[in-house]
Write a structure and sequence with these properties.
With about 375 residues, this protein is α/β, with parallel strands linked by helices. It is about 40% helix and about 20% strand. The chain is built from 15 helices and 16 strands. The chain has helices at about 15-25, 70-80, 95-105, 120-125, 130-145, 155-160, 190-195, 220-230, 245-250, 260-270, 285-295, 325-335, 335-350, 355-360, 360-379, and strands at about 1-5, 35-40, 45, 50-55, 55-60, 60-70, 85-90, 110-115, 150, 170, 205, 235-240, 255-260, 275, 300, 315-320. Strands 3-4-2-1-7-8-9-10 form an 8-stranded mixed sheet, sandwiched between helices. The chain has a 6-stranded parallel sheet with strand order 13-12-11-14-15-16, with helices on both faces. α2 (about 70-80) packs across α3 and α8 (about 220-230) crosses α12 (about 325-335). The longest helix has 18 residues, at about 360-379. The protein starts with a strand and ends with a helix.
């Protein structure tokens, strides 16, 4: 069986979607051949990755990132030439629309996977509830055309059901983590010396996009609350985005590393002491699993999917809302030596149970289901 995976995220980007799709390519079983179909400024044509050269434009409310305007007919021609059996739609942008059209034109079954709550993003970034509602209806229309819709968490499933997506088509597809790349063994004393951190001055880490929807307005207030509680620490921020300058100004003692490659970010994870992730809009939060695989206790928000990627009270803490005193209290408790050591060991053990080959089983089963239904319908 051949599966065409359509995404608006070319692999020059490092984010939760590309991390997940890289794992899909790596762990596909022998009876399933997967190939990425995307668009980029420069084309690429490999057995598992096709990026057709396209014109890019800035994304509204996030001009630092681009989406590409694809040539629709070229994708249909390539899908038919490749003998594809199943279309997998992963993003609701231009390539998602192409996936819908190609599936319709070629009479191919369609699987959808939900990665980003664009309705919440639109509402937060635009400040308009009406635009957020419009985006929700658009997402419902798009995913309503999929025979199967895979979501990374129960909270995301509830979100889609509330938006009137057919509940009987939705399946949970949880996330995995590469525990060989993300491991405590990558801890770097040299890096810790550069950050000027120690057991008595822990490194509190955030990794991800530096943008409003990630809840990062909490960080300056959290810094103040930690200082008020006399917890000596150093905030380490890895990533890039429209809030980078603001965070640099409001958290002057923080180390802002900017965007990093996979190997570098793995070293950064292992060299920190605790991971802080205040996003309430993430549907999964791959970075939460990567932090735990690196031996870090985690503190996450009580809304969204990241809370389902850890064990509250065992591998970290879940905080309701964005009260900086509440977050500072959770961090302070985990920074105590006995608690930190216990949570660190539990975090690594939990991550070892989230292997990608196990996590991907529901996706590959969905491919087989829709392909079998399509074959029987054709017969």
């Amino acid at each position: 069986m051949k599966v065409a995976i359509f995404t608006d995220n070319d692999f020059d980007k490092i984010n939760g979607v590309t991390t997940t799709l890289t794992a899909v390519l790596r762990h596909a079983p022998v009876d399933i051949q997967t190939r990425i179909y995307t668009a980029a400024a420069l084309g690429s044509d490999d057995p598992t990755y096709l990026a057709l050269p396209s014109f890019g434009v800035g994304i509204p409310f996030y001009r630092e990132m681009k989406m590409y305007l694809p040539h629709w007919r070229q994708y249909l021609d390539r899908v038919q030439r490749d003998g594809v059996d199943v279309i997998h739609l992963t993003t609701p942008g231009p390539l998602g629309l192409v996936a819908l059209w190609v599936a319709s034109q070629a009479s191919l079954p369609l699987v959808g996977s939900f990665h980003t709550d664009l309705s919440a993003y639109t509402r937060l970034l635009s400040g308009s509830n009406r635009l957020g509602d419009w985006m929700r209806e658009y997402m419902r229309w798009m995913y309503g055309r999929c025979q199967r819709v895979l979501v990374p968490s129960e909270s995301t499933r509830d979100l889609l059901v509330a938006a009137r997506c057919p509940a009987d088509r939705i399946r949970i597809w949880s996330r995995g983590v590469d525990t060989q790349l993300f491991t405590p063994d990558r801890r770097s004393p040299h890096l810790r010396d550069q950050w000027r951190v120690s057991d008595d001055r822990p490194a509190l880490l955030y990794v991800g996009r530096l943008s409003k929807e990630k809840g990062l307005s909490l960080l300056p207030r959290l810094e103040s609350a930690l200082r008020a509680s006399s917890l000596d620490h150093r905030l380490i921020i890895a990533g890039d985005g429209p809030m980078r300058r603001q965070l640099a100004a409001e958290c002057p003692d923080a180390v802002i590393l900017g965007p990093l490659g996979r190997e570098d970010v793995a070293e950064v994870f292992a060299s920190a002491d605790l991971f802080v992730f205040p996003s309430e809009t993430d549907t999964a939060g791959n970075v939460v699993l990567e932090a735990q695989a690196s031996g870090l206790p985690v503190v996450v928000a009580s809304a969204g999917g990241p809370q389902e990627q850890m064990q509250s009270g065992v591998t970290g803490r879940v905080c309701a809302g964005h009260d900086p005193a509440l977050w500072a209290g959770a961090i302070g408790g985990l920074c105590q030596a006995p608690a930190r050591a216990a949570a660190s060991a539990a975090a690594r053990e939990f991550a070892l149970s989230r292997r990608w080959d196990w996590a991907l089983a529901p996706l590959f089963e969905a491919y087989r289901e829709v392909a079998d239904r399509g074959s029987r319908r054709a017969a």
